[in-house]
Amino acid sequence: MSDVPVVDAAGSERDQRRAAASLAAAGLVAGDRVLVSAAASPALLAVVLGALRTGIVPVVLDPALPAAERSALAEDADAALDVGEDPARLLGEAEADLAEVPLARPMHYTSGTTGRRKGVWSGVLTGDDARSLAAEEIDLWGFGPGDRHLVLSPLHHSAPLRFAVHTLLAGGEVLLPGPFEAARAAGVISALGPTTTFCVPTHLQRLLALGDVDWSSFRRLVHAGAPCPAPLKRAVLDALPDGTLWEFYGSTEAQFTVCSPADWLAHPGSVGRARPGRRLETDERGQLWCAVPPWARFEYWRAPDKTAAAWRGDLVTVGDLGRVDDDGIVWLDGRREDLVISGGVNVYPAEVEAVLDAHPEVVESAVFGIPDEEWGQQVVAAYVGTADPAALAAWSRERLSPAKRPKSLHRLDDLPRTSTGKVRRLDLPEVLGLRSV
Asked: What is the pTM of this model?
């Protein structure tokens, strides 16, 4: 695996200083934005960290965006500099001083599964808040100089970039094997012995299907980004070293929970407990709100109405529905936009999906609504697996009330997804030739 770039902390810091010097020479100052849309590389990490450690905010875009969409986001971001797909051009000879920790968060645009993408902006942090932000992430996952972090997801998304950045800040190494391909990822794991990674359930499903992955080097494998079917989660727990498989619930905007293996085994299907320094509660509609510390605050870039709707004092919501039980365990019911109302009954896709996913011949499922003249909406499910639709319908009848039972079940080879692994429920009616809601 000599073709896999290995980014070490010391070498990256030199490149970060070079990137910071080039940004300063171009006239950028703290609070300015630099736009970059490049594939994962040591240079991309150096530019991101070199900017952050001088208070300049990197706006990291998907390099595969269509030209028109990229142009619209670039115009919205109003960056002082656009380095495009070549961050290495900022790595000149001169070097500049860096702060000990990032003085800002990158600005990411929300993934856009519903509605127009929104920029998530945190501005320039105070010194205390900047140190608290870095310490929170490093302490939570225990990053240190002995870590070798494997990047499996694109770095233009917030979680993969956050894990890679904080590994380097803690003195560790980062492995960049390129776009995910299960056999290649398995080879990197066996040959290079990563200690940590962040992934989505699709990665786990495809790696587990290979059957011969050597997981023994991992001390922490963290997943998020989409619900993980309980059978898959149990299979991965069995395959990995004890105490290794962790989960979190969060979004581009903010981080909410962390779920240890012990908490999940005691409360299967949950997303764990509030992260340290946070508190979760629900409102009268069942919408989750999280109290966050000052360094986790954000606004939607140039969208004050959307910002106002997301905040109540120090409480923030991203529109997810759920509940917090008496033990402080958090359960997700889905998103308000995904809610299906059939005959006046609220049907939460996550609840129906949990029942379908428990069938031994279902790998994963996705539930959505389509218009129905009599009931308003009817519940429909797509699934991946070998289950016979009639048998799966019988399984549902035994476990779900009439309003929650899928009125039709459709077997697919794969579910449509965003690049972060989220199922694109809104695309399923078209994929299946059904009318959308």
From this structure: 0.84
